[in-house]
Amino acid sequence: MDILKFITAGSVDDGKSTLIGRLLYDSEAILVDQLEALHASNRKNDDGSIDLAILTDGLKAEREQGITIDVAYKYFETDKRKFIIADAPGHIQYTRNMVTGASNAGLAIILIDARKGVIEQTTRHSFLVSLLQIQQVVVAVNKMDMVDYNEDVFNKIVADYKVLAGKVGLKNITYIPVSALKGDNIVYPSAKISWYTGDSLLTHLENVELEIDDASAHARLPVQWVVRPQTDELHDYRGYAGRVSSGSFKVNDKVTVLPSGFSSTISKIEFYDKELKEALAGKSVTVHLADNIDISRGDIIVNSAGQPQLSNLIEADLCWMDTRPLDTTLTYLVQHNTKTIRCKISEVLYKVNINTLEKDYDEDFKLNDIGRIVIKTAEPLAFDPYQINKANGGAIIIDSRTNVTVGALMLRQAVD
Amino acid sequence: MSKYRLDYLDELEAEAIYILREVAGQFEKPALLFSGGKDSITLVHLALKAFRPGKFPFPLVHIDTGHNFEETITYRDDMIARIGEKLIVGHVQDSIDEGKVIEQKGKNASRNALQTVTLLDTIAKHQFDACIGGARRDEEKARAKERIFSVRDEFGQWDPKRQRPELWNIYNGKIHKGENVRVFPISNWTELDVWNYIRRENIALPTIYFAHQRDCITRNGQLMAASPFLNMDADDKIENKNVRFRTVGDMTCTAAVESYAFEIDDIIDEIASSKISERGARMDDKVSEAAMEERKKGGYF
């Protein structure tokens, strides 16, 4: 059994919380004491039924305001798969929260209100899903009960969305008509939508295929920690501990350590009390090299035959996440894998109006702004373009005055 | 690209080990908060996998309310002897003796709330900059929103509105002097995941997790272990029952469930079909709907 992490993009008005509540409720992921609290709550739907949206509203401030501010994580499982939902808010002022939730998602559910169709926020959500390179997309056309389960309404929305998907560059899209409020097509198929022959949302989530890049060409191991017991019997033991972020390493593979550029071969791969022949993407291991070279935290071990780019001047997409605007004269910190070094955003190329997708040449980068920039780093970063290797293409910007994470970077390419 | 996927326990394990190593790499004086419960026992097992054959780059810290189940302390001391790592104990009794906290009175008196002060004092005394804890996001609604690296101010407070964005697997552990970070490597595990992992890895647990006979009284609809620490009166009727505990906390606030689950397989079956969540057996969460959020803001684990 594997784990699928997914994000739901939509606003309260689209019934996003209700959709998640319905998934949890109908898949019997809610326990009795939580259910009691749910039934005891004063919040009810207009028809007196329990308000499933309560299940995802975590913080008191959110309960008061009736909106989802932060990212909340929800867990449920079926016989086929385990699920982690990142429930992020959909309002434009919470773009950074959606970006945060989307960064680890393998699938995105984009909610569209059947009565409203493809609107500005659909564009925004789709752009973000594309920017963060989420592999699989589900377009859930919700509130089908409000349009009498009309097939033409659904088909029109699908046609409109295809145009948008082309513009933002989304692939692997599945369209599902649903009513979260009534429970149609969420967990169980609905007789009211008999014209739809595809899977219900949950059945789709259970069966959708997610791919992992295990090609050795992209083998990357950021070094987190050097294991040196320095005991009498393990005097010369020197193991490089880290998690294979992409690709796979085998014993005897020729590898290069970056940024130094020294080469060696893998002599041993350990995992606690076991020796492995191969370490696949996602595994946390300890690697030994045949040669004694100076390696420390922040270095990255890569397959010599397929090396990443190495540069201290990099073009990247940036999402700004702080209330203080970007200051291009200020020195920030950039954290990429296990390396944290000084940097400057040396140039703002353009911003994107994420509602209309138009470019904006206003240089003022404020909270929730997204655009293309050039970053200059104090030392070269060994990175892959985010579009081909998310694990080695994402980085964060930290304001060294506040220590707060202020930006998300999707690295694109070295600038000559 | 291929359809290769990690099994879910392998994925959760690899993620937790990654997080533990990030703590080692990013902080000067980290500590692992050890309660004697299954979640922190799982953390110790994961730390063995992250750092052996080296030593842990942090000590274990136990906040001792003085109202422990005896079995927990026995387990703790045996485990420390076995793994040969350092243990620091902070005593709630010391905080009471120093007048920093006042023992609660009345029928529902518990030292559970007092241990926050002892914890914060222990952190300050040893100048810990990161404390690893076994909290999980599936436990409770407020925890569902907490980061894996969760920054606390110098008063130990968690501010849910000022959480840092946490993207990909990049954890920002930068803090100012006096602040510290709570780190939750098993955030993404569910209760059942922990149990399945304990079974797979054959991890030993304190005996109170398994069904045994014990004198209990019923309080507010919940079964509590009869003990000298529980203020009892004539109305309290002691009954001997077959029980086990789903969490290990202070004896005055950890409720038992009637159970005949003597083996780990029985427990997993019981939880898989169970209809009450783990924290539902904690009286300290029942006080109000926002109980956990309030305690977390105050520096609770």
From TrEMBL, chain A:
The species is Mucilaginibacter psychrotolerans
Which EC class does it fall in? Answer: transferase
Any GO BP: sulfur compound metabolic process
The keyword Nucleotidyltransferase is assigned to this record: yes
Molecular-function annotations in GO? ATP binding; GTP binding; GTPase activity; sulfate adenylyltransferase (ATP) activity
Q: Which UniProt keywords apply?
A: ATP-binding, GTP-binding, Nucleotide-binding, Nucleotidyltransferase, Transferase
The protein in question is named sulfate adenylyltransferase
Q: What is its EC number?
A: 2.7.7.4
> Lineage of the native species?
Bacteria, Pseudomonadati, Bacteroidota, Sphingobacteriia, Sphingobacteriales
* Domain Tr-type G per the UniProt entry, residue ranges: 1-218
UniProtKB/TrEMBL annotation, chain B:
The chain positions of domain Phosphoadenosine phosphosulphate reductase read: 30-255
Which major enzyme category is it?
transferase
Q: Which residues form a coiled coil?
A: none
Write the record's keywords in alphabetical order, separated by commas: ATP-binding, Nucleotide-binding, Nucleotidyltransferase, Transferase
Which EC number(s) does UniProt give?
2.7.7.4
List residues traversing the bilayer. Answer: none
**A Gene Ontology biological process term:** sulfate assimilation
Any one GO MF term held by the record is: sulfate adenylyltransferase (ATP) activity
Entry's Pfam families?
PAPS_reduct
Q: Does the keyword Lipoprotein apply?
A: no
What protein family is recorded?
Belongs to the PAPS reductase family. CysD subfamily.
Q: What is this protein called?
A: Sulfate adenylyltransferase subunit 2
